[in-house]
Amino acid sequence: MLKIFGIGLNKTGTTTLGKSLQLLGYSHSSYNLRYLKQVSRGLYRDLFRHVALFDSFEDWPYPLAYEQLDRQFPGSKFILTRRSSAKVWLTSLESHSMRTDPRIGCDTRILAYGWSYPQLNPAAHISRYESHLIRVRTYFQNRPNDFLEVCWEEDSSWDTLCAFLDKPQPTLPFPHENMGSIVAHSNFELNERVLRSELRKIATRDS
To answer: What is the tens place of the pLDDT at every residue in 3-34?
Structure first.
């Protein structure tokens, strides 16, 4: 059975991709901290079992496991979402880090990026973003039937996605999910306190 993997880093339009795939009729699975923890340790057995149950996927841990998934599920399709620039992505990631529950968000970001908050090392995050794009493009070079790169800021229509998946275009408008400007900031003050504490630790260590 065809599997479709979104392998862009978070805050590159992964939620929009997930909603689009659901509207196209695929059974979909998104972020899973349990599998992210396992993949970060090089363990894939449970993830493979989970993938067997669904058609499409995005968010963590899939950007970290595309090579293993490609070998385990030959004939799959991979979609790399990106932002219009690394700076735009970093700004979105920073904003998102202040809205998420720090008890979950910090664990996820440490596993994915090595830092609890992008504000602690913006340069490392920019490097991570740019190197991910390069690695994915290199891995899938000369495989246009298996790989699509999209930026919703540049192409927010059904045309490219449906052509890649060989699916008819829905009559519903193309979705734009999880836009930061309309998400509640209920965790902002708590994240501010945690981030200030982390910054003080770095300042003390470097002094």
So the answer is: 999 999 999 999 999 999 999 999 999 999 99
Q: Is residue 81 a part of any domain in this protein?
A: yes
Mean pLDDT of all residues in 153-174:
94
Q: How far apart are the first and last CA of the chain?
A: 56
Q: Whole-angstrom Cα distance, residue 172 to residue 98? A: 32
Domain that holds residue 174: 4-85+119-180
In a domain, 13, yes or no: yes
d(CA 10, CA 28): 16
185: confidence class by pLDDT, cuts 50, 70, 90: low
**Which residues, listed in sequence order, are joined to residue 4 by a DSSP beta bridge?**
56, 77
Number of domains in the chain: 1
Give CA–CA dist 176/195, Å, rounded: 29
The pTM assigned to this predicted structure is 0.92
By CB neighbour count within 10 A (0-12 exposed, 13-18 middle, 19+ buried), where does 17 fall? buried
Q: What is the CATH number of the domain that holds 161?
A: 3.40.50.300
Instruction: Provide the pLDDT for residue 180.
Output: 53
Would you give the distance in Å from CA 57 to the centre of its chain? 10
Mean pLDDT of the chain: 93
Evaluate whether 180 touches 95 at the Cβ level (below 8 Å).
yes
Assess contact for 139 and 149: CB atoms under 8 A.
no
Phi, psi of 59 (to 5 degrees): 75, -175
Does residue 22 lie in a domain region? yes
The answer to the question of residue 76 being in a domain is yes
